[in-house]
Amino acid sequence: MATSNISDTFRKAEKTDIERIWQIIGQAKAQMQRLGSQQWDESYPAIEHIHQDIQDGNGYVICREDRVVAYGVISFDGEPVYKEIEGKWSNDLPYVIVHRLAIADEMKRQGMAKQFMLQAEEVSRKKGVYNFRVDTKYDNTYMLRLIDTLGFRYCGEVYYRNNSARKAFEKTIRPHSHPIGISGYTIREATLMDAVPIFEAIDKDREDLRIWLPFVDSLKSAVDEERFLQSVLAVPYEQRDPVYILEQGETICGLAGFHFSDAPNHRTEIGYWLLPAYRGKGIITHAVRYLCQWAVCKRNINRIQIRCAVENHPSNAIPKRLGFTLEGTERDGELLVSGEYVDTNVYSILKKEVESWNRKSN
């Protein structure tokens, strides 16, 4: 993975890197000793830790001109001492952690540590993990400045070997936004931090949205939305039915996403809603097109389904516009908040039909 400097390369560490990594670790220990920091000592990290990091696939390096200049551990295995924090984490979702970060002496004060941390965020995004946690000693002023620069929030204290206290921090990694084909509008996966703005967006137009969306009446606070998002994000990324936010800038326009996925049969369903002020612009059409292509490309989905209440004409227009096939109508397919059962149309599109979109556009 290339970084912002074309001469730098970020990659997993290999056994052949160990001698150079150990040299960098030694430089870091010497610097800590000069500064009076007790972050590391003679027994930690040991070279056995480096061997284990690489064996586990958790060791990463940054190379400049093919020479290792930074090393660190990027792990999703969890840190046992974090379970006993004196303070509070914001949630119990999976998280990424960086340990044993060390920079070669000749690369100090050149932003290499920040570069490594940002690369760790990229690794985490690809796994669909949006929690980032770190800890450091009270006397590690450089790391404390870096943590502050990167937007981490202090959560409390954790204790390692010899009852050593560390300050613990966390941040939410924001998923990348992707254009949907309409200027100014993007789509990205929702995180737990989006619970409040999503709830506020729904609450503002509750009366309009509740007509066709039965879940709206059960959404009574941002805590309810947070519980829903937590249930989604707790699922490993490969099995997750992601929820996506549609945005204009950083303003929420609506949501779209997957549900009822059936991995063995390579099938899924897409649902969506849009706030009244943004309707009639083609936003949902473009968003669903994006999600269909994502599902086919990233998840090897063969069949994508959309269900719409028969009388919800704007919703039905989306699959029709995209070339979905109307397969039939479910009698009394959905119960609205009005207490009325309504028939629902069932539309589908297949992988080969989604793939034909690109061929036609070319």
Throw out a few tags for this protein:
362 residues; alpha+beta; eight-stranded mixed β-sheet; 10 helices; 16 strands; 31% strand
Q: What's the gist of this structure?
A:
With 362 residues, the chain is α+β, with helices and mostly antiparallel strands.
Structural description of this entry:
By secondary structure, the protein is α+β, with helices and mostly antiparallel strands. The protein is built from 10 helices and 16 strands. The protein has helices at residues 18-35, 47-56, 112-126, 141-149, 195-204, 206-209, 222-233, 283-299, 313-321, 351-361; strands at 8-12, 59-64, 67-75, 86-87, 96-103, 131-136, 153-160, 164-172, 178-179, 185-189, 243-248, 251-262, 267-274, 303-309, 325-335, 341-350. The protein has an 8-stranded mixed β-sheet. An 8-stranded mixed β-sheet has the order 9-10-11-12-13-14-16-15, sandwiched between helices. Strand 15 and strand 16 (341-350) form a beta hairpin. Helix 5 crosses helix 7. It is elongated, with a radius of gyration of 24 Å. The chain starts with 7 loop residues before the first strand and ends with a helix. The model has no long low-confidence stretch (mean pLDDT 94).
